[in-house]
Design a protein that fits this description.
By secondary structure, the chain is an alpha/beta fold. It is built from seven helices and nine strands; from the N terminus they run αααβαβαββαβββαββ. Helix content is about 40%, strand content about 25%. β6 and β7 form a beta hairpin.
């Protein structure tokens, strides 16, 4: 049973994250419009992930892009041949995603309370979308990822590596503030394993300062264990 104080705290950071991205959605989408060409190594990881899923991970079913933002990762996964839909907290981000990708499916929701039946997804992607979840809620988040994946299903988790959070205050001139948590890949791998998601790949690259990065970037691929019972 979740305590009232825990529920209130969770509602607080979820609400703050939604408000932040609703405010900056259009500027964010413009600023990161060329990210795929600027960071080809990152998208190569996602392409490799898509190939794993296409080979039959989780039965070859649907894929969820959780925290999809303006939908560019969703569109990329769809271009790799996956049956993918996007989900995000921010209706303003989703409006951009629908505008730019009219043939794809997007819906509003929270990763911590997914309206997805147990064991139904071939794969899930959390592309820099766990970075606003407090560390004490990560076990719950990863348990939710485990719940929605079919046995053998894959998870791709991308995040900034490090120990100290980055706080963005009034980005693009908007009166909002949000912390971007940086995590140690070893910690994230341990939490995934504890949730029943076995690590299959770990990629960490150094920061590219010429692109404005101040921390290394980490990409973990994990797989839901198949019961032998």
């Amino acid at each position: 049973m979740t305590s009232t104080s825990s529920t209130s705290a969770e509602a607080g950071f979820v609400s703050s994250t939604r408000t932040f991205y609703d405010a900056i959605a259009e500027d964010y989408a413009d600023h990161f419009a060329g990210e795929r060409s600027a960071k080809p190594r990152d998208w190569t990881v996602m392409a490799g992930f898509a190939e794993l899923v296409s080979r039959g991970g989780g039965g070859g079913g649907q894929v969820a892009d959780l925290g999809c933002g303006p939908g560019r990762s969703t569109a990329f996964l769809a271009a790799q041949g996956l049956d993918v839909f996007g989900l995000d907290l921010s209706e303003s981000m989703l409006a951009i995603a629908r505008r730019e990708n009219p043939g794809l499916r997007f819906r509003q929701g929270s990763m911590l309370d997914l309206d997805i039946p147990d064991g139904t997804l071939a794969a899930a992607v959390s592309w820099y979308s766990s970075i606003h979840t407090p560390v004490d809620r990560l076990p719950y988040l990863f348990a939710e990822f485990h719940r929605i994946l079919a046995p053998g299903g894959y998870l791709l988790l991308a995040f900034q590596a490090g120990d100290q959070p980055l706080t963005l205050d009034q980005p693009f001139g908007h009166p909002v503030t949000l912390d971007f948590e940086r995590r140690r890949p070893e910690l994230m791998a341990e939490l995934l394993e504890a949730a029943g998601l076995a690590l299959r790949s770990r990629t960490v690259r150094e920061a590219e300062e010429e692109l404005g990065e101040s921390s290394a970037q980490a990409f973990l691929i994990a797989r839901k264990l198949v019961s032998t019972l």
